[in-house]
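Minutes, project check-in
Item: structure for the 232-residue chain
Input as provided by the requester:
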Amino acid sequence: MTLLLGLASLAIIIWAAQKYVKADPRKLAKMAKPAGGIAVLAFAAFLATRGQFVIAAPLVAIGLGLLGWIPLPAGFGARTQKSTGQVSRVRSAFIEMELDHDSGAMRGRILAGPHEGKDLDALDVTTLVSLLGAIDEESRALLATYLDRRDPAWREHAQGDAAAGRGGTPRGGPMTEEEAYQILGLEPGADADAVARAHRTLMKKLHPDHGGSNYLAARINEAKDTLIRHHR
Protein backbone atom coordinates (compact mmCIF):
# COMPACT_ATOMS: atom_id res chain seq x y z
CA MET A 1 0.00 0.00 0.00
CA THR A 2 2.81 2.39 0.92
CA LEU A 3 4.59 1.62 -2.37
CA LEU A 4 1.42 2.38 -4.36
CA LEU A 5 0.96 5.68 -2.56
CA GLY A 6 4.59 6.58 -3.23
CA LEU A 7 4.22 5.84 -6.95
CA ALA A 8 0.99 7.83 -7.08
CA SER A 9 2.66 10.78 -5.36
CA LEU A 10 5.57 10.66 -7.82
CA ALA A 11 3.16 10.63 -10.77
CA ILE A 12 1.32 13.66 -9.35
CA ILE A 13 4.59 15.55 -8.84
CA ILE A 14 5.70 14.88 -12.43
CA TRP A 15 2.29 15.95 -13.77
CA ALA A 16 2.32 19.10 -11.65
CA ALA A 17 5.84 20.01 -12.78
CA GLN A 18 4.80 19.75 -16.43
CA LYS A 19 1.78 21.95 -15.80
CA TYR A 20 3.93 24.46 -13.89
CA VAL A 21 6.32 24.94 -16.80
CA LYS A 22 3.45 25.64 -19.21
CA ALA A 23 1.24 27.66 -16.88
CA ASP A 24 0.52 31.40 -17.00
CA PRO A 25 2.24 33.04 -13.95
CA ARG A 26 -0.94 34.97 -13.13
CA LYS A 27 -2.96 31.77 -13.04
CA LEU A 28 -0.27 30.13 -10.92
CA ALA A 29 -0.62 32.86 -8.30
CA LYS A 30 -4.35 32.21 -8.02
CA MET A 31 -3.85 28.45 -7.84
CA ALA A 32 -1.05 28.50 -5.24
CA LYS A 33 -3.26 28.44 -2.14
CA PRO A 34 -5.72 25.70 -3.24
CA ALA A 35 -2.83 23.65 -4.67
CA GLY A 36 -1.08 23.92 -1.33
CA GLY A 37 -4.24 22.75 0.41
CA ILE A 38 -4.49 19.68 -1.80
CA ALA A 39 -0.80 18.89 -1.26
CA VAL A 40 -1.16 19.18 2.52
CA LEU A 41 -4.25 16.91 2.51
CA ALA A 42 -2.43 14.36 0.37
CA PHE A 43 0.49 14.33 2.80
CA ALA A 44 -1.91 14.02 5.74
CA ALA A 45 -3.55 11.01 4.07
CA PHE A 46 -0.14 9.41 3.56
CA LEU A 47 0.72 9.90 7.25
CA ALA A 48 -2.66 8.48 8.27
CA THR A 49 -1.98 5.24 6.33
CA ARG A 50 1.20 4.90 8.41
CA GLY A 51 -0.71 5.37 11.64
CA GLN A 52 0.69 8.85 12.40
CA PHE A 53 -2.70 10.35 13.23
CA VAL A 54 -1.31 12.89 15.73
CA ILE A 55 0.57 14.65 12.91
CA ALA A 56 -2.05 14.01 10.23
CA ALA A 57 -4.97 15.57 12.13
CA PRO A 58 -3.65 19.19 12.28
CA LEU A 59 -2.46 18.89 8.67
CA VAL A 60 -6.01 18.05 7.62
CA ALA A 61 -7.24 21.24 9.31
CA ILE A 62 -4.56 23.31 7.58
CA GLY A 63 -5.29 21.74 4.19
CA LEU A 64 -9.03 22.37 4.51
CA GLY A 65 -8.28 25.93 5.61
CA LEU A 66 -6.10 26.60 2.56
CA LEU A 67 -8.94 25.34 0.38
CA GLY A 68 -11.29 27.76 2.13
CA TRP A 69 -13.58 25.05 3.52
CA ILE A 70 -12.90 25.92 7.16
CA PRO A 71 -11.08 28.80 8.91
CA LEU A 72 -7.32 28.34 9.13
CA PRO A 73 -6.04 27.38 12.58
CA ALA A 74 -5.41 30.41 14.80
CA GLY A 75 -1.94 31.89 14.30
CA PHE A 76 -1.24 29.92 11.11
CA GLY A 77 0.87 32.06 8.78
CA ALA A 78 0.89 35.00 11.18
CA ARG A 79 4.62 35.54 10.77
CA THR A 80 4.52 35.40 6.98
CA GLN A 81 1.50 37.60 6.37
CA LYS A 82 2.32 41.17 5.55
CA SER A 83 0.64 43.71 7.77
CA THR A 84 -1.49 46.32 6.00
CA GLY A 85 -2.71 49.78 6.82
CA GLN A 86 0.39 50.85 8.78
CA VAL A 87 1.25 54.55 8.70
CA SER A 88 4.37 56.20 10.10
CA ARG A 89 4.14 59.73 11.50
CA VAL A 90 6.98 62.20 12.08
CA ARG A 91 6.19 65.58 13.61
CA SER A 92 8.21 68.78 14.00
CA ALA A 93 7.26 72.26 15.18
CA PHE A 94 6.10 73.31 11.71
CA ILE A 95 5.05 70.18 9.85
CA GLU A 96 3.63 66.69 10.32
CA MET A 97 4.47 63.97 7.79
CA GLU A 98 2.91 60.57 7.17
CA LEU A 99 4.24 57.61 5.20
CA ASP A 100 1.98 54.78 4.08
CA HIS A 101 3.92 51.52 4.51
CA ASP A 102 2.03 49.69 1.75
CA SER A 103 2.22 52.25 -1.07
CA GLY A 104 5.20 54.33 0.04
CA ALA A 105 3.08 57.48 -0.45
CA MET A 106 4.18 60.48 1.59
CA ARG A 107 1.81 63.25 2.66
CA GLY A 108 1.98 66.07 5.14
CA ARG A 109 0.25 69.00 6.80
CA ILE A 110 1.47 72.41 7.95
CA LEU A 111 1.05 73.02 11.67
CA ALA A 112 1.94 76.71 12.01
CA GLY A 113 2.27 79.96 10.10
CA PRO A 114 0.07 81.53 7.40
CA HIS A 115 -0.62 78.16 5.77
CA GLU A 116 -1.53 76.39 9.02
CA GLY A 117 -3.82 73.37 8.50
CA LYS A 118 -3.14 73.09 4.77
CA ASP A 119 -2.02 69.83 3.16
CA LEU A 120 1.37 69.97 1.45
CA ASP A 121 -0.18 68.50 -1.68
CA ALA A 122 -2.47 71.54 -1.89
CA LEU A 123 0.46 73.97 -2.14
CA ASP A 124 2.65 74.38 -5.21
CA VAL A 125 6.35 73.60 -5.06
CA THR A 126 7.40 77.26 -5.34
CA THR A 127 5.36 78.13 -2.24
CA LEU A 128 6.81 75.23 -0.27
CA VAL A 129 10.39 76.10 -1.23
CA SER A 130 9.79 79.69 -0.08
CA LEU A 131 8.95 78.38 3.40
CA LEU A 132 12.28 76.60 3.90
CA GLY A 133 14.24 79.68 4.94
CA ALA A 134 11.76 80.69 7.65
CA ILE A 135 11.38 77.43 9.61
CA ASP A 136 13.49 75.49 12.10
CA GLU A 137 16.18 73.05 11.01
CA GLU A 138 14.21 69.90 11.80
CA SER A 139 11.12 71.13 9.93
CA ARG A 140 13.34 72.18 7.01
CA ALA A 141 14.84 68.70 6.76
CA LEU A 142 11.38 67.13 6.89
CA LEU A 143 9.92 69.44 4.24
CA ALA A 144 12.98 68.89 2.03
CA THR A 145 12.34 65.14 2.24
CA TYR A 146 8.77 65.65 1.06
CA LEU A 147 9.92 67.89 -1.80
CA ASP A 148 12.47 65.27 -2.88
CA ARG A 149 9.61 62.79 -3.31
CA ARG A 150 7.25 65.24 -5.01
CA ASP A 151 9.68 67.05 -7.35
CA PRO A 152 13.29 65.76 -7.41
CA ALA A 153 14.35 68.84 -9.44
CA TRP A 154 13.25 71.36 -6.81
CA ARG A 155 16.77 71.86 -5.45
CA GLU A 156 17.89 73.30 -8.77
CA HIS A 157 15.65 76.29 -8.09
CA ALA A 158 16.38 76.65 -4.37
CA GLN A 159 18.94 79.20 -3.19
CA GLY A 160 21.67 78.28 -0.70
CA ASP A 161 22.30 75.28 1.50
CA ALA A 162 19.75 76.40 4.07
CA ALA A 163 16.95 76.41 1.48
CA ALA A 164 18.08 73.03 0.22
CA GLY A 165 17.67 71.54 3.70
CA ARG A 166 21.23 70.31 3.81
CA GLY A 167 22.82 69.31 7.08
CA GLY A 168 19.47 68.74 8.77
CA THR A 169 19.71 66.60 11.85
CA PRO A 170 17.12 65.20 14.23
CA ARG A 171 16.09 67.55 17.04
CA GLY A 172 17.89 67.40 20.35
CA GLY A 173 16.64 65.51 23.36
CA PRO A 174 15.74 61.85 23.75
CA MET A 175 12.90 60.45 21.68
CA THR A 176 9.88 59.31 23.65
CA GLU A 177 8.38 55.84 23.25
CA GLU A 178 5.18 57.43 21.95
CA GLU A 179 7.13 59.19 19.18
CA ALA A 180 9.01 56.00 18.36
CA TYR A 181 5.79 54.00 17.93
CA GLN A 182 4.35 56.72 15.67
CA ILE A 183 7.47 56.86 13.51
CA LEU A 184 7.47 53.09 13.02
CA GLY A 185 3.70 53.00 12.50
CA LEU A 186 3.13 50.63 15.41
CA GLU A 187 0.57 50.41 18.18
CA PRO A 188 1.92 50.99 21.71
CA GLY A 189 3.07 47.71 23.24
CA ALA A 190 4.22 46.12 19.96
CA ASP A 191 6.84 43.44 20.58
CA ALA A 192 10.49 43.45 19.52
CA ASP A 193 9.82 41.36 16.40
CA ALA A 194 7.20 43.87 15.20
CA VAL A 195 9.66 46.71 15.83
CA ALA A 196 12.36 44.97 13.78
CA ARG A 197 9.95 44.24 10.91
CA ALA A 198 8.67 47.82 10.77
CA HIS A 199 12.24 49.14 10.85
CA ARG A 200 13.27 46.90 7.92
CA THR A 201 10.21 47.90 5.89
CA LEU A 202 10.79 51.62 6.37
CA MET A 203 14.52 51.50 5.72
CA LYS A 204 13.87 49.77 2.39
CA LYS A 205 11.68 52.72 1.41
CA LEU A 206 13.49 55.64 3.05
CA HIS A 207 17.20 54.77 3.26
CA PRO A 208 19.35 57.34 1.40
CA ASP A 209 20.69 54.57 -0.85
CA HIS A 210 17.11 53.89 -1.96
CA GLY A 211 16.13 57.47 -2.69
CA GLY A 212 15.26 58.40 0.89
CA SER A 213 16.86 60.98 3.19
CA ASN A 214 19.50 60.96 5.90
CA TYR A 215 17.10 62.76 8.21
CA LEU A 216 14.29 60.19 8.06
CA ALA A 217 16.74 57.28 8.15
CA ALA A 218 18.21 58.72 11.37
CA ARG A 219 14.75 59.14 12.92
CA ILE A 220 13.76 55.55 12.00
CA ASN A 221 16.97 54.16 13.51
CA GLU A 222 16.44 56.24 16.65
CA ALA A 223 12.87 54.97 16.96
CA LYS A 224 14.01 51.35 16.69
CA ASP A 225 16.79 51.85 19.26
CA THR A 226 14.36 53.56 21.67
CA LEU A 227 11.88 50.67 21.56
CA ILE A 228 14.49 47.91 21.59
CA ARG A 229 15.92 49.39 24.79
CA HIS A 230 12.40 49.30 26.24
CA HIS A 231 12.12 45.56 25.50
CA ARG A 232 15.42 44.63 27.15
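Outcome recorded: The chain is about 55% helix and 5% strand.
No further action items on this chain.
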